Amino acid sequence: MNPLFERVGVIGAGAMGRGIAQIAAQAGSVVVLFDMQPQACVAAQAGVFAQWDKLGEKGRMTAEQVAQCKLRLICADSLQALSDCKLVVEAVVERLDVKSALFAQLEGIVSPSAVLATNTSSLSVTAIAAQLKRPAQLAGYHFFNPVPLMKVVEVIAGLRTSKSVCDDLAVYARQMGHTPVLAQDTPGFIVNHAGRGYGTEALRIASEGVADFATIDQILKDQVGFKLGPFELMDLTALDVSHPVMESVYRQYYEEPRYRPSQITAQRLAGGLLGKKTGEGFYRYADGVVKTAAPAPVPSVPTMPPVWVSPRAARRAELLLLLKNLGAKIETGASPSAEALTLVAPLGFDVTTVAVVERLDPARTVGIDMLVADNETKRRVLATNPATRTDMRMAAHALMARDGKAVSVIRDSGGFVTQRVVATIVNIASDICQQAICSPADLETAVTLGLGYPLGPLAMGNHYGPTNVLEVLFNMQTVYGDPRYRPSPWLRRRGAIGLSLLHEEEAM
Ligand code: NAI
User: Fold this and answer.
1) CATH of the domain spanning 193-291
2) Which of 35, 64, 312, 481 to pair with 87, CA 20 to 30 A apart?
3) Does the Cβ of 17 fall within 6 Å of ligand 1?
4) Which residue among the candidates 29, 192, 310, 475 is catalytic per the annotation?
């Protein structure tokens, strides 16, 4: 099959440009690569050739395919050499003035029908196109690093971009083996916008002293199934990349509290604790390998107190069954006896508030996060309140660890760790739908392929229950009085009537 664009120009031969050049050549296009530093171009070409040799050795490409691909990747010594290209993708330095000037120059070189694409991750496509004679020809084409492995690309329509340009870029993305998602030109587009919830809420939890970095990572991996915890992820990405993205999206949305960055990353960035690449980030690394602390031992408790469960606990029947299976002595009275360990399982509210509202003895009250079904989680999470007695905390910990499942005990906060992070992710995703930045289906695709989440954010909301997520947010707003937990109207409408978040239609 012939590629839609037979001759493609790629400008900028850095990490991104070389990846784009590789997949375009693999799709059958002749690729003309240009960089203002000729040696960068030569190095990129050699790098891509080495990749193809490896694919050949692994049997993923035939020797003939490798040879053909190599013939199709050409280094150019001037922009003029791109004159016959029907598509030019730019991956130069992330500066508006440089990108605008480059495209203005290109307009005088390529044919009027040529498609111009920018790989910007944070600049406005509309602003890049503003000074062009033919702004309709320019769109965003946002790939992810490393391009050959991250098989999703955001096709971004600026205010003046023609629909056919976006359609062609989407078709060509598929020919390169990538999945295109269509986005409006808004800060962070889809992936960098949807990704705000995970790290920023985890940072906020850490900044409140609710749990340390490693515990937060463990909880989110074991309860929700994220491959990497938020702090592991930030260590991998490095703070010199991720902190500026947090600041950029926040500023571009005129300080929308949902995207508020954290002083923790600002300070660590200033101090050079960037992550794995500098040997120290949220974790310490020795020769690239993380050094982790041993988990806290399960306390030994000579006599286990009886357990009483609040009638308002989330998943109460399931919690009672779990306690029975763990061999607990369960109290069934209307209120706990004087010895009883008192378990509450709030959604969004903190354990302290629940103890006060339900007139329970805070000294014997411990919370458990029941947002996630017990058979789905590899870890149980308990929270104490400021008055919880040590013997009660130890008893709850020992009881919940009886079957060998991991247990984390955290400090009290509205919404535990998982509830806060899941609700924030779902809320931000819902607001992306509210703003019609992309379709719900493209949002799910972009997040699962671009961020590697176990579920798309809307499917995640459905999984834990839109009504539960809404309840967490409403109650978090009450606990913190913070507008960052204000539910998006999109989620509020669906959550209020218990509708699937993937239900796209809204009658007009
Ligand atoms: P890089 O620094 O690895 O490479 C940029 C290359 O562009 C350099 O070789 C440089 O010599 C060349 N260059 C700079 N100005 C030029 C000009 N006026 N004309 C020709 N060549 C020029 O940068 P990287 O990481 O490849 O990023 C490129 C673009 O892709 C940026 O806009 C960045 O925001 C975006 N991006 C980067 C991602 C990443 O993870 N690195 C992910 C997604 C987008």
Assistant:
1) 1.10.1040.50
2) 64
3) yes
4) 192
Note if 192 is an active site residue: yes
Question: What is the 14 CA–ligand 1 centroid distance (Å)?
Answer: 5
CA nearest to 104, candidates 129, 137, 81: 129
Report DSSP letters for 183-223, one per residue: EES-TTTTHHHHTHHHHHHHHHHHHTTSS-HHHHHHHHHHH
Task: Compute, in angstroms, the gap from residue 75 CA to the centroid of ligand 1.
Answer: 16
Reply yes or no on whether 78 is catalytic: no
| Tokens coding 311 | 């009638």
Stretches where the chain sits below pLDDT 50 are none
The response to whether residue 43 sits with its C-beta less than 6 Å from ligand 1 reads no
Among residues 122, 376, 75, which one has the least CA distance to residue 253? 122
Please give the CATH topology (third level) of the domain spanning 307-410.
Rossmann fold (3.40.50)
Q: Which CATH architecture has domain 7-185?
A: 3-Layer(aba) Sandwich (3.40)
- What pLDDT score was predicted for residue 498? 87
pTM as predicted: 0.95
| Phi and psi torsions of 55, nearest 5° | -60, -35
CA angle 248, 251, 253 (to 5 degrees): 105
State yes or no: is 164 an active-site residue: no
User: Does residue 101's CB lie within 6 angstroms of at least one atom of ligand 1?
Assistant: no
Structure tokens at 91: 């991956």
pLDDT of residue 293: 83
- What is the CA angle 446-452-457, rounded to 5? 60
Task: Write down how long the chain is.
Answer: 508
| SS3 call for 447 | helix
Distance 243 CA to ligand 1 centre (A): 18
Residue type, 478: T
User: What is the pLDDT, as a whole number, of residue 507?
Assistant: 64
Tokens (6 digits) for 354: 């629940």
Q: Is the shortest distance between the CB of 192 and ligand 1 below 6 Å? A: no
Query: Does residue 14's CB lie within 6 angstroms of at least one atom of ligand 1?
Result: yes
Query: Is 94 near ligand 1, meaning CB less than 6 Å away?
Result: yes
Structure tokens at 76: 């150019």
pLDDT tens for 395-412 read 999 999 999 999 999 999
Could you tell me where in the chain the CATH 3.40.50.720 domains are found? 7-185, 307-410
The residue to mutate among 11, 119, 142, 241, having the most atoms of ligand 1 within 8 angstroms of its beta carbon, is: 119
385 catalytic? Reply is no
Q: Which of 29, 100, 121, 488 is catalytic?
A: 121
The residue annotated as part of the active site, out of 90, 119, 124, 154, is: 154
pLDDT at 508: 63
- The predicted-structure confidence for 264-285, as pLDDT tens digits, reads as follows 999 999 999 999 999 999 999 9
At residue 287, the pLDDT reads: 86
| Tokens of residue 204, six digits | 């906020």
Going by C-beta distance under 8 Å and a sequence separation of 6 or more, which residues neighbour residue 318?
A: 370, 373, 374
